[in-house]
Specification:
Strand order of the largest sheet: 5-2-3-6-7
Helix content: 25-40%
Radius of gyration: 20 Å
Distance between the termini: 37 Å
Strand content: 15-25%
Number of strands: 7
Number of helices: 7
Shape: globular
């Protein structure tokens, strides 16, 4: 792509696929090897910016950034890090909506590698299985910790839970601020983005409304 095409793409929240685009050799290197390479390249970026890496405050920055990328911000890229989402038999025969709301979203946009921060609200109607509530938080956190597009994030959480729970009756709402909007470009500090994905019984507007009422969230 030329520079104009890159600029246009960078301001569009589009996703080419539901799965995060990864190279076939994405996990052939160890984490330590990746950190070493990223440290080198980030040092070069800092030098190009004119920063003095001999300064005590800056000398450790390339390593800190590299470790942060591999071990913290983007740990969700590696499927080995997916949390174990234990399910249990629905012995209570609970058949109403179950909601975990205000789950923290701490992600990064794949266009600028700037933070996406906000909350997710996840609901499902149990059939044969239920899941421990903290596991919903862990699953959201896992998918958030990779370079993301918010639409894809919603879909990844939804489809994983549908498969795990053995039901299509799942809904996911994400409300988030994008620093690529607030700190560059238009520099709008107050706007946020909302995405919604759902399946099964949540295709019924009345059931969706019940969910939105439960999380005190309304769509026009």
């Amino acid at each position: 792509m030329n520079k104009n095409e890159i600029e246009m793409m960078g301001d569009s929240h589009i996703s080419g696929a539901t799965e995060t685009p990864l190279r076939a050799d994405a996990f052939e290197k160890s984490d330590d090897a990746k950190i070493e390479r990223i440290q080198h390249h980030f040092s070069e970026i800092m030098k190009e910016l004119g920063l003095d890496l001999t300064d005590d405050s800056l000398s450790g920055t390339p390593y800190r950034v590299a470790k942060m990328y591999v071990k913290e911000l983007f740990y969700g890229l590696n499927p080995k890090n997916r949390p174990k989402v234990s399910t249990f038999d629905n012995k209570y025969e609970y058949q109403k909506i179950l909601v975990e709301q205000n789950i923290t979203i701490d992600s990064a946009c794949e266009h600028h590698f700037l933070p996406i921060v906000g909350n997710a609200h996840v609901g499902y109607i149990p059939k044969d299985k239920v899941v421990g509530l903290s596991k919903l938080n862990r699953l959201v956190d896992y998918y958030a910790h990779r370079p993301q597009v918010q639409e894809r994030l919603c879909l990844q959480i939804l489809r994983d839970l549908q498969k795990t729970l053995g039901t299509e009756d799942v809904i996911v709402v994400v409300n988030a601020k994008h620093l690529c909007v607030s700190s560059r470009g238009i520099k709008d500090k107050s706007s946020f983005t909302t995405t919604v994905e759902f399946g099964g019984q949540f295709a019924d507007p009345m059931i969706r409304k019940e969910f939105f009422d439960m999380v005190s969230f309304q769509l026009d």
